[in-house]
Specification:
Helix content: 25-40%
Largest sheet: 9 strands, mixed
Bound molecules: flavin-adenine dinucleotide
Strand content: 25-35%
Length: about 425
């Protein structure tokens, strides 16, 4: 069927103003300024009232993410690290162990010559900082508005929004978290593997100072991660077989804390209080076609991982920055080749040549991180007695083997790809 000619209304439309879409909006600032890019961000959910400067009411039930040192450097490049840091807790050591086995590995910031291996930041705070930054940029903001239809046209994509707007974009960025049905509307399949596991997230109080230690403890039910938060509080990510979450959600606070103590042991001290509990079913999802002419999928729309290694957003942020770098090079090249008045910005941004270059520089990093996270889940999920000893020996061996441990630390920091 022949497609009718449309007038391009935007050079770039970002679908989703979550962590990834909002980061991309901020990272596009230099290009918006240099080329006068017409950018729109569409976000389906109403945002909490933004205040000036961003206000923050610390609460005991928010979700927090482990942000690798490499991501902190990227936020620095965006000029928002200072604000992010206000609510960040440094990770000075990572302690990895397996319940019932002797082995343990410690990754120290000192060993790799850095002040912190990473930082734990409440997602709500990251959202506030990113949206505060976005509010200062000359971009179009549709919120709350949902992209209901997305269809390819010669010029890129045609978008129909729930607020009645119709847009045509040279480059459309799917940063919708992958659950909105838009990928399916476009016929982009995704490979999905359910881990048959659910992560329970909450904040817990601990009886002793955590000293900036993040714990990863593998148990027969699944991994338990504890991340340092300000004060004597830690973010808990407790993974268990799907189906068990109803019982864990229903436990009284004291029974929950007792079960956690039994599963985790005493190395972080006594668990003294617990916040609101949230559950997330876990699966590995990868989009078969992360780029198409005029379209790119980023963040969870491209890859949703098991949170065991805290890599999902860190990987996505590298994708955001690589996309902006690729678009910057493509525009500079096109401007060099064509007279200024013949530069078609929207065409250049959405060209398959540009997007293939982007995909080529993402492929390896994405595959490595997926292999690393998925491999950890599988390695520690296998209940073979001999393998258990090998894992313990591996954890101890890793503690002794300086270079290997430093390499693991660099990967955890998001510096090694
Ligand atoms: C339990 C858990 C713990 C994690 N911990 C870590 C960690 O410690 N470190 C780390 O790096 N990563 C971690 N991750 C991964 C991280 O949370 C994700 O990588 C990140 O949230 C992905 O962000 P996103 O913007 O791609 O998607 P989302 O956060 O899902 O945002 C998508 C946005 O798009 C909007 N939207 C959806 N559909 C539409 C539509 N049709 N129109 C307009 N807007 C739409 C939604 O409202 C939403 O705001 C964790 C994940 C889980 C599940």
């Amino acid at each position: 069927m022949a497609m009718s000619k449309q007038t391009v209304t935007h050079d770039i439309v970002i679908i989703g103003g979550g962590l990834v879409g909002a980061s991309l909006g901020c990272a596009l600032a230099p290009l918006i300024k240099q080329y006068g890019l017409r950018v729109a961000v569409i976000e389906a959910t109403t945002l909490p009232e933004a205040t000036e400067p961003p206000g923050w009411q610390p609460s005991f039930d928010a979700r927090a993410s482990a942000i690798a040192e490499g991501s902190a450097q990227r936020f620095r490049r965006l000029g928002i690290w200072e604000a992010m840091q206000q609510e960040a807790s440094p990770i000075r050591r990572i302690h990895i162990s397996e319940r019932g086995r002797l082995g343990a590995t410690r990754l120290n910031a000192q060993d790799v010559g850095v002040a912190a291996l990473g930082h734990v930041i409440p997602n709500a705070w990251m959202g506030r900082v990113l949206h505060h930054e976005l509010s200062g940029l000359p971009l179009e903001w549709h919120c709350p508005a949902r992209v209901e239809q997305l269809a390819p046209v010669v010029e890129g994509h045609h978008l129909t929004l729930s607020d009645g707007s119709k847009l045509v974009a040279g480059l459309t960025v799917l940063a919708d978290g992958g659950r909105s049905g838009l990928k399916e509307q476009l016929g982009i399949p995704s490979a999905q593997t359910s881990y048959q596991q659910t992560a329970l997230i909450t904040h817990v109080g601990v009886s002793q100072p955590h000293q900036g230690i993040a714990y990863e403890r593998f148990t027969t039910d699944g991994p338990i991660a504890l991340l340092p938060l300000p004060g004597n509080a830690m973010e808990l990510v407790w993974t268990h077989p799907s189906g068990d979450e109803k019982a864990r959600l229903a436990l009284s606070d004291s029974d929950f804390l007792a079960q956690l103590q039994k599963a985790f042991g005493d190395r972080a001290g006594r668990f003294t209080r617990v916040g609101k509990r949230h559950v997330y079913p876990l699966k590995l999802t990868t989009a078969d076609e992360p780029v198409r002419p005029g379209l790119v999928a980023l963040g969870n729309a491209a890859h949703a991982l098991h949170p065991v290694a805290g890599q999902g957003f860190n990987l996505a942020l590298r994708g955001v920055m690589d996309l902006v770098d690729t678009l910057t090079q493509a525009l500079a090249q096109a401007r060099f080749e064509k007279a200024e008045n013949h530069l078609n910005v929207a065409d250049t941004l959405g060209a398959m040549e540009t997007l293939t270059r982007f995909e080529q520089c993402r492929e390896r990093d994405r595959a490595n991180v997926i292999r690393f996270s998925d491999g950890l889940v599988k390695l520690f999920g296998l209940d073979w007695p001999l393998l258990g000893h090998a894992r313990a020996a591996g954890l101890i061996g890793l503690n002794l083997a300086g270079p290997l441990r430093r390499s693991l630390a660099r990967r955890a920091m998001g510096i090694e790809r």
